[in-house]
Amino acid sequence: MSQSLSKKQKWIVAASIAFAVCFGVMPAANAMHIMEGYLPASLCVFWGVVALPFVIWGFFSIRKTVNANRRTISLMAMAGAFIFVISSLKIPSVTGSCSHMTGTGLGALLFGPAAVAVLGLIVLLFQAILLAHGGLTTIGANCFSMAIAGPFVSFGLYKLMDKAHVNRKVNIFLACALGDLFTYCVTAVQMAWAHHSNVGFGAAFVSNMGVYAATQVPLAIIEGILSVIIIMALESYATAEMKAIGFLGGAE
């Protein structure tokens, strides 16, 4: 029996090695999305209530996708793993928070933004419980910024640029990078809303955005590039799955 691997098998092995390496170099969990206890109880409840309808919508969206084609489960699991790994690699930033790539733009382009609300919530739960990255009380706020606001912007931009016949790779890059940046615009609003008594909301927001920009702009660029590379690889080695979710086609 031949021991050689097919091209698809080699790609899967390479992806698993990259996944393991990411965990091997992951820094200690000494920073958060928005850390446990940093938001007042009223805002924790508010953001949780705002996020809930999107999560419910996401469950229905995922069920519809999986029922239509069971082969999409592995691709969805890959998107969830990508979000988990890439959002766990973080840089300390604004007090009570941190900067990191989100990975949610990629999932939004593949499955739609509603599905990513569920994937992001699952990731945030695991990170809060296992890595002390984020918190259970702040999970509604973190879910809204990272798994709802950012993905919806990425998806909307991608569709608009696709209709404008923007080059596919440029489209993917911009959609994922700008969705990442918008996540941190929302986080800056959340942080400023919670803690602005000394300087006012506007000054607190501008201050948060200034600190985030120093680290988040280069991270967003990196995320955009990674997203393009991953989608190119999926189109080459997971063609059937990409066709099943209706992603192949559009502007070139």
From TrEMBL:
It comes from the Bacteria. It is found in: Cell inner membrane; Cell membrane. Pathway: Cofactor biosynthesis; adenosylcobalamin biosynthesis. GO terms for cellular component: ATP-binding cassette (ABC) transporter complex. Its main location: membrane. Belongs to the CbiM family. This is Cobalt transport protein CbiM. The lineage of its organism: Bacteria, Bacillati, Bacillota, Clostridia, Eubacteriales. The gene is cbiM.
